[in-house]
Amino acid sequence: MKAAYIDRYSNINDVQLGEQPIPVLAENDVLIKVHAVSINPLDLRVLEGEFKAILPVKFPFILGNDFAGVVAQVGSNVTQFKVGDEVYAKTDLNGAFAEYTIVQQSSLALKPQNISMEHAASLPLVSLTAWQALVEIAKLRSGQKVLIHAGSGGVGSIAIQLAKHLGATVATTTSGKNTRWVRELGADIIIDYKIMDFEQELKDYDVVLDTQGGKTLE
Ligand SMILES: NC(=O)c1ccc[n+]([C@@H]2O[C@H](COP(=O)([O-])OP(=O)(O)OC[C@H]3O[C@@H](n4cnc5c(N)ncnc54)[C@H](OP(=O)(O)O)[C@@H]3O)[C@@H](O)[C@H]2O)c1
User: End-to-end CA distance of the chain, in Å?
Assistant: First the structure.
């Protein structure tokens, strides 16, 4: 199968496009014919070796986390999916930037029928991140106030919608060009970080989701 892979930690110019074997299924795995993928900052960090202490890889390593596609084969213990199902996921075993990938059935979900493969492939990692931060860690509740930095970004745009769904009041930082869009996503208070200081504008917030780090976090 065709795949985008690396032979060593390196940079974007050294990504190889070539043939790799189709991954072999274990009993709890599902083989998927990939239709769409999305690219996240994590992909670049893995490529550059920044995460090798916590996410070590074996070379050649196929890149990519987020994908949507169609089930091509299922392992002998797989009960929740069948060949032909449209699915999406963040990979847990093999890279997604390839014609085929495998995941354990516990990591896979049916693709909602009302969104395209491309839309579905853009969702897993940013949504899991927003869920982990707001639901599992912050335990955001209805009536609380949350500041979501970079509301126009991948993580931020999902976090705004999730926070509104949970019943929170949402403030977000964005540049002026994206103000209208984050309002449409549900943000109540919008700070243009290029011309305003969020720390002067907001106070008494219950939760802050910061993906910027550095001076913003400080
Ligand atoms: N993608 C993931 O699944 C994921 C998971 C975990 C962690 N992260 C981390 O989260 C960060 C953002 O990732 P992402 O995928 O959401 O990135 P992204 O889609 O590239 O979005 C980055 C956003 O940052 C905004 N921004 C830039 N400077 C800002 C500032 N000073 N204050 C507020 N917003 C600012 C930009 O907004 P404007 O265009 O409006 O200026 C842009 O929309 C990265 O550091 C990434 O490593 C990402």
Answer: 46
At 171-190, the pLDDT tens digits run: 999 999 999 999 999 999 99
Residue 30: strand, helix, or coil: strand
How far apart are the CA of 89 and the centre of ligand 1, in A? 21
Predicted model pTM = 0.94
Q: What pLDDT, in 10s, does the model give residues 69-128?
A: 999 999 999 999 999 999 999 999 789 999 999 999 999 999 999 999 999 999 999 999
Query: How far does the centroid of ligand 1 lie from the alpha carbon of residue 156, in Å?
Result: 7
In the structure encoding, which two tokens stand for residue 81, read together? 């999916």
Residue nearest to atom 26 of ligand 1 (CA): 150
184 three-state secondary structure: helix
Q: Ligand 1: distance of its center to the CA of 68 in Å? A: 22
Q: Is the CB of 38 under 6 A from ligand 1?
A: no
Residue 193 CB–ligand 1 contact under 6 Å? yes
Query: According to the model, what pLDDT value does residue 93 have?
Result: 75
Instruction: Examine the pLDDT at 56 and tell me if it is beyond 90.
Output: no
Mean pLDDT rounded to a whole number for the chain: 96
Q: Which amino acid is at 99?
A: E
Ligand 1: which atom is nearest the Cα of residue 173?
Answer: 33
Q: Is 174 in the pocket of ligand 1 (CB under 6 A)?
A: yes
Give the per-residue pLDDT at 22.
96
pLDDT of residue 200 exceeding 90, the answer is yes
Query: Measuring CA to CA, how many Å separate 213 from each of 112, 149, 208, 217, 218?
Result: 33, 10, 12, 5, 8
